[in-house]
Structures are given as structure tokens and as C-alpha cells.
């Protein structure tokens, strides 16, 4: 038993009237003691559920990120020094709507924007489809390459992925607690803003509830991250919805005033509205994805163009969303995204 961890547990787990928030340093130490398994299983489980009930603060998330920074892996920086876009998705996956994140990454990569994603296998509590299985179905293997090999793939294809069980086994050992406590722990929010990359980057973090967005903004601000994006996306991902308003936060903390630009975008205003494509199973999804990359008119096409266009608008020289939509359509219809996909298959196999 860790006596040090017990004191931190007492602080967050004393109930609604006497519990206290951890300092950033205390939160980092708590995360370290969990990653190194110096805290016992009983202590870890108690801490995670107590912290969920209390609700984490931005300061506590910043401390947890400090620990991940120390213990977690990092893909070495691109030789070009180019900014990498980090597209997040909850680690416990998706089970209601079709994820477009991997396909969006391919479009961005084709346009010269490097993208990194990260995650593990099927994970409690949702047990939804994880990114690594989607990529695997597309013929891209992210389970095997080393970090240096991943950097090489990123250099050559503008796409990279950090697979949690291989690269960060200390964090992977905490996955079992999700099933045992039956609830998403604060780690689920942490994973949306963790960046396993050593170079310049731009985080895009999905969220569901407004308090989570505030927490994310506070944590990243404390960590010295000046620009980042938040998206009230599908199932907590950064996939923009089509059938409702896309609520987006563009943060630039270098500005003394108006550090947050709030966007409310409607896909229907750009001819891309409609129902969000429904998730059924991996076989159906892969059939849709491949047809979409072939330039066919599929139920997934408008979702991919809508998402790709937004990120192209934000991260390329596209002056407006209309121009970015036309650019996304052309990249797909000219077969360039398909070529990029096959190039990635060649290097990540």
C-alpha cells in the first residue's frame, strides 16, 4: 500500500462536503503512482471512482497530463517542423454513428496536413469500435511499428498512430479499472487532450458536455498550449455532426481579448446536411468507406466532405468553407485520396 497515495485518495474521496481538489503537483503524483502501480488495485479503483464523483478540475487534468508527458511515448518530430493535427476520439469507441476520423485523416494527409491519432483496443465501458480496428479494416496496421517506424510512416504519408497497448503499457494496465468500476474515469477526458508527439501540434478535442470543454480549455491553458480546437462532436469525438448544429471552439490564448471564437455551423447551409450515417458493423462500414474513397455517391460521402472541409479550412490556405468543400471534393474525385490510402497501406502493413 502507498501511504502517499492514501493521503491523495482521502483528499478527493471524503464526500461532497469535505473533499478537496488536488493541486497540479498532487494530481501528477497521483497519476504517476497509478502508472507505476505503486498504488494498490484497491487504491486505484477507489481513486478513479471518487474522482469521477467529485469531477476533475482543469488543474487536475493538467497534472495528469504532466505525468503522461513524463511516462508516455512520443513520436519524434517531423524533420520539416510542420504542425501536426491531433484528431481525438474517445478510447472506448463508437457504436451509434459511423466514424469518419480515419478517412478525414486521409483527406488532410493528401492535402499536405500531417495527422496523428491514438487509442487502444475495444475498451469498457462502451466497447465501441476503436480507431485501430477501423484502420486495420482499411489495410493499415498500427499495432506493430516502432515509434521510429511510425515517425517514418508519418514523414512519408502524413499519417501516424500511437497504439496504447504497445507504446504505453503503463496506461494500458489501467484499462481494467474501467470495467471494474463500471464508469468512465477522468482518464477518458485526459485521453482526448493527450498528445503523444514531440513536435509542433494542434489538438482537436471532442466533447459532449459543456463543462468538459471548460475543463479541457483550462487544462491546456495551464500546460502552455495557446491554440487548440474543441468540437461538440458525434459521441464525444471530433467528427462534426450533419443533422444538428456543429458547435466548435477555436482557441487562441495569445490574444488578450477574444481568445475564443465560437462557431456554429450547419451542414445543410452548404448542401451537406442529412442524417449522420448510422453504425451497423465493420463489414458494412468498410464497404461504405472504400466506395467513398473510390469517389462513389455513398451515405458517407457528405459526412467525409463536411468534416474534411472544415479542417482544410482551418489548417490550409483555403479562404473559406466553400472553397475547402470544393477542395475536399476534388481530392476525392480525382482519386488522390485513394492513392494516399494505398500509399499508407504500403508503409504501414
TrEMBL record:
Instruction: Tell me the ranges covered by the Glycosyl transferase family 3 N-terminal domain, including all copies.
Output: 6-68
The name this protein carries in UniProt is Sll1634 protein
GO CC terms of this entry = cytosol
Q: Which BP terms in the Gene Ontology apply to this protein?
A: L-tryptophan biosynthetic process
Which species does the entry assign this protein to? Synechocystis sp. (strain ATCC 27184 / PCC 6803 / Kazusa)
What InterPro entries has UniProt attached to this entry? Anthranilate_Pribosyl_Tfrase (IPR005940), Glycosyl_Trfase_fam3 (IPR000312), Glycosyl_Trfase_fam3_N_dom (IPR017459), Glycosyl_Trfase_fam3_N_dom_sf (IPR036320), Nuc_phospho_transferase (IPR035902)
Q: Basic and acidic residues bias located where? A: 1-10
Q: Which Gene3D superfamilies match?
A: Nucleoside phosphorylase/phosphoribosyltransferase catalytic domain (3.40.1030.10), Transferase, Pyrimidine Nucleoside Phosphorylase, Chain C (1.20.970.10)
Q: Which UniProt keywords apply?
A: Amino-acid biosynthesis, Aromatic amino acid biosynthesis, Glycosyltransferase, Transferase
The organism's superkingdom is given as Bacteria
Enumerate the spans annotated as Glycosyl transferase family domain: 100-335
| GO terms, molecular function | anthranilate phosphoribosyltransferase activity
Region Disordered, annotated ranges: 1-23
Amino acid at each position: 500500500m502507498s501511504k502517499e497515495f492514501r493521503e491523495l485518495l482521502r483528499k478527493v474521496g471524503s464526500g461532497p462536503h469535505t473533499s478537496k481538489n488536488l493541486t497540479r503537483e498532487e494530481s501528477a503524483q497521483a497519476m504517476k503512482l497509478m502508472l507505476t502501480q505503486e498504488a494498490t488495485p484497491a487504491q486505484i479503483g477507489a481513486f478513479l471512482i471518487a474522482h469521477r464523483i467529485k469531477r476533475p478540475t482543469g488543474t487536475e487534468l493538467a497534472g495528469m497530463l504532466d505525468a503522461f508527458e513524463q511516462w508516455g511515448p512520443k513520436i519524434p518530430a517531423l524533420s520539416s517542423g510542420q504542425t501536426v493535427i491531433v484528431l481525438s476520439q474517445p478510447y472506448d469507441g463508437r457504436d451509434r454513428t459511423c466514424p469518419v476520423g480515419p478517412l478525414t485523416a486521409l483527406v488532410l494527409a493528401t492535402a499536405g496536413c500531417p495527422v496523428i491519432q491514438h487509442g487502444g483496443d475495444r475498451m469498457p465501458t462502451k466497447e465501441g469500435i476503436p480507431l485501430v480496428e477501423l484502420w486495420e479494416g482499411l489495410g493499415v496496421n498500427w499495432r506493430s511499428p516502432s515509434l521510429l517506424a511510425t515517425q517514418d510512416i508519418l514523414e512519408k504519408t502524413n499519417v501516424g498512430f500511437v497504439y496504447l497497448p504497445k507504446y504505453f503499457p503503463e496506461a494500458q494496465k489501467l484499462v481494467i479499472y474501467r470495467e471494474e468500476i463500471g464508469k468512465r474515469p477522468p482518464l477518458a477526458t485526459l485521453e482526448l487532450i493527450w498528445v503523444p508527439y514531440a513536435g509542433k501540434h494542434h489538438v482537436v478535442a471532442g466533447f459532449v458536455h459543456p463543462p468538459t470543454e471548460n475543463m479541457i480549455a483550462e487544462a491546456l491553458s495551464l500546460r502552455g498550449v495557446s491554440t487548440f480546437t474543441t468540437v461538440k462532436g458525434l459521441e464525444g469525438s471530433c467528427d462534426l455532426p450533419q443533422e444538428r448544429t456543429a458547435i466548435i471552439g477555436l482557441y487562441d490564448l495569445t490574444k488578450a481579448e477574444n481568445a475564443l471564437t465560437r462557431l456554429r455551423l450547419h451542414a445543410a447551409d452548404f448542401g451537406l446536411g442529412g442524417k449522420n450515417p448510422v453504425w451497423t458493423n465493420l463489414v458494412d462500414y468498410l464497404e461504405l468507406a472504400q466506395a467513398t474513397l473510390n469517389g462513389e455517391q455513398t451515405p458517407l460521402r457528405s459526412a467525409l466532405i463536411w468534416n474534411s472541409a472544415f479542417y482544410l479550412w482551418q489548417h490550409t490556405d483555403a479562404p473559406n468553407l466553400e472553397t475547402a468543400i470544393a477542395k475536399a471534393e476534388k481530392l476525392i474525385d480525382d482519386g488522390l485520396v485513394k492513392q494516399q490510402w494505398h500509399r499508407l497501406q504500403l508503409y504501414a502493413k
